[in-house]
Amino acid sequence: MQVTFAFYCVIAYLLVITVVGIYYGKKVKTQEDYSVAGRSLPTPILIGTLMATWMGAGTVLGGPAASGYQYGLMAAIAFSMGSPVGQFVLSFVAKKIRRMNAQTVPEVIEKVYGSLARVLATVIIMLAYIGIVAYQYKGVGLILNSILGVPENIGTLIAFGVIVVTALFGGLYSVAYTDFLSCCMMMAGLFIGVPMAISMAGGWSWVAANIPPGHLGFGSISFPQLLGFFFPVFFYVMGDQNMYQRFFAAKDEKTAMQSGIGWMIGCTATYFFVAAAAIAARALYPNINAAQSFVHLATHGMPTIIGGICVAAITAFIVTTANSFLLSVGVNMSWDVYARFVNPDAPTEKKLFVSRASVLGLGILAYVVIQYYPELLILQQYTYTMYGAAITPALLAAVMFPERITPLGGVVSIFTGGAVTIAWETAKTAGWAVAKTYPPVLIAAPLAILALIIFRKNGKK
């Protein structure tokens, strides 16, 4: 009965956010409306959309949920803490970000590093975001498998259809307000449901007594692996285009900074509850799929109504995250490629058409990717590393120290971060011991930063 109720909650909530999304989508009249909501979002809506976009499948199925269940509490904390630490830094840059009045990250990068850097940044963002959208598909597939027994491949296909179709109606107006609803639902489910589940299991002392030895500490994970959890998220969050677009969409600079701080506080609280849920699930259900731990706890270890709300909110988070990333790369194609290099004088209607066509094409490509790269936690770490190493160093330098860097340094930094990530992952696949021992972020990100330093204006080479 509880699983059936959760299913109906999922269907009802998806219908609600679809209707709300279509309603707010009617506000889209220009390219700026579509990409940055007319630069009009107030603080509560901005906090909600920042949280909902950032916390998708990577939070409730990968990240702290899967790592906490599989490796232990410290792994969940290491994965989680990269986010609030990065958010703290980004919050104090939010005013400068809003001041730039841009629409995309490559647009910001071009202002400092030139058109070649804009092209490279666009390519890197597309590679990373396709991977992120892919594991959102996988996330919905896992949920449908957990609560209904639907085969994962069928659930993933259903997710592909729903996410792509709803994204086509997109625009940040509709995405932001549906994100806010998703965020409110998730907070209610988490803050009530997780404590109730732990209490129903016998309390935290019972949970601690029924998990593997060392699971409340570092467990079986090594220190380099811990760094491999922390740094990809840390670098990625400070350069994520979705976050920058939301800061661009703030109604003013003060709203941008306040929303950044609220986003950090909300995510920190959420990670704590998700990690606790993963540990409780390990004690109660020691033989389930790590990625399904949180969903399984919601459907089997919480009261029916609260569990149903939790599962519905988890699904909504995943869908809204996927919509956001598809919208973002669609804007990249129309604004950073088509309007910048192909047809600079294109009317708004043409740009919107290109955006939506790009959403469809890239959505299909993401579905193909997940068929060949099915391990969600591994895919999440790879995409975070790819983006964080290639984009974040150059982007932060462009926002914070534009007078001290050079176009050559930016181009070399972006290329180095992306190329080294791909090379390191290839070496790991080939069985190289050093590549298996040290995560790619520990190599790619420092080299990308080094390129900016070597080619800086003061003493540049």
From TrEMBL:
Major subcellular site: membrane
The subcellular location is: Membrane
**Pfam (any one):** SSF
Similarity comment:
Belongs to the sodium:solute symporter (SSF) (TC 2.A.21) family.
* Keywords noted in UniProt: Membrane, Transmembrane, Transmembrane helix, Transport
Q: Which organism is it from?
A: Aminivibrio pyruvatiphilus
Q: Which PROSITE patterns match?
A: NA_SOLUT_SYMP_3
| Name of the protein described by the UniProt record | SSS family solute:Na+ symporter
Q: Where are the transmembrane segments?
A: 6-24, 45-65, 71-94, 115-137, 157-176, 188-209, 221-239, 260-285, 305-331, 352-370, 382-401, 408-425, 437-455
Name a GO molecular-function annotation: transmembrane transporter activity
Topology of the protein relative to the lipid bilayer:
Multi-pass membrane protein
Per its UniProt record, what InterPro entries does this chain match?
A: Na/Glc_symporter_sf (IPR038377), Na/solute_symporter (IPR001734), Sodium:Solute_Symporter (IPR050277)
Spell out the GO cellular component terms annotated for this protein, sorted alphabetically and separated by semicolons.
plasma membrane
